[in-house]
Each structure stands twice: as C-alpha cells, then as structure tokens.
Amino acid sequence: MILILLGLTTGFSVPVLQQLAPDKDYRWTALIIGMIFIILSIVVYYCPPKSSTQSSLGQKLEGIPTELIKPFVARVNDLTEPQRRILSYISREGSGHNLVSQEMLETKFNQYNKGEVYYRLEQL
User: Which residues contact 89 (CB under 8 A, 6 or more apart)?
Assistant: First the structure.
C-alpha cells in the first residue's frame, strides 16, 4: 500500500522519517510493484496454498508426533504410573504459583535415581 501511495503522490510525512518521497524516476516502478503485491495478497487470501500441515480439527498434521496432537486428557491417560504420580505431585505442589524444582522431585521420589527422575520429567 505504501508503494502505491509513493507512486501516486510526491511524498508524505512520516513521524520518524520526516518526509517519505520516491525518486521521480521510480514512481511508476513503486506503483506497479505495489499493485502487484496487492493483487498477489488477494489471490493468496482467496486461494491459499495447499499446506502439508493442517489444523487439529480432524485434519492431518505431518511432522508432529501423534502424542503431541492428542488432547491433554488423552496424553495424561497414556502416562505410566510413575509419570502420573510425578505429574500429580507437580500439580498439587505447583498450585498457587509455587515452583517445584527437580531437587524437590528427587527428594519426594527417592526410589528413582536422578537420571531416571530427569528422564521421566523430560517425557512429561
């Protein structure tokens, strides 16, 4: 739109740039390029390009793991029992803007070594 304005006018004031004006040799170029971009944007709006990734409203999403496409409740149902206990603990202790550190989890779930706690957190 700015290119068209520059092509049609001798310039206009812009707060930061003061006077924005095209070179008189490039006014037609600015006008033509501006019109091309407006026509292109109309075409793209009414005929969008076909995409390999689509929304989650029953359409296919490529490149995204299926476990990330599932709703949160379904993902919680697929958790192993230890992961479910860790998530439950984080939900309880983390309510009210409280932070739950990895050290707190390692203390609470001391039956797992640090590497295993880290792995389970990474999977959550």
Answer: 100, 105, 108, 109
What is the residue whose two structure tokens read 């390009």?
Answer: 49
Question: Are 4 and 38 in contact, with CB atoms under 8 Å apart?
Answer: yes
pLDDT tens-digit map of 69-117: 788 888 888 888 888 888 888 888 888 778 888 888 888 888 888 888 8
- Nearest 5°: the CA angle 28, 31, 34 is 145
* Identity of the amino acid at 2: I
Single-letter amino acid code for the residue at 28: W
In whole angstroms, give the CA distance from residue 6 to residue 20: 8
Distance CA 57, CA 48 (A): 18
Q: State both tokens at 39.
A: 């026509």
74 token code pair: 């379904």
Backbone angles phi, psi at 10, to 5 degrees: -95, 5
Q: 37: Cβ–Cβ under 8 A, 6 or more apart, which residues?
A: 3
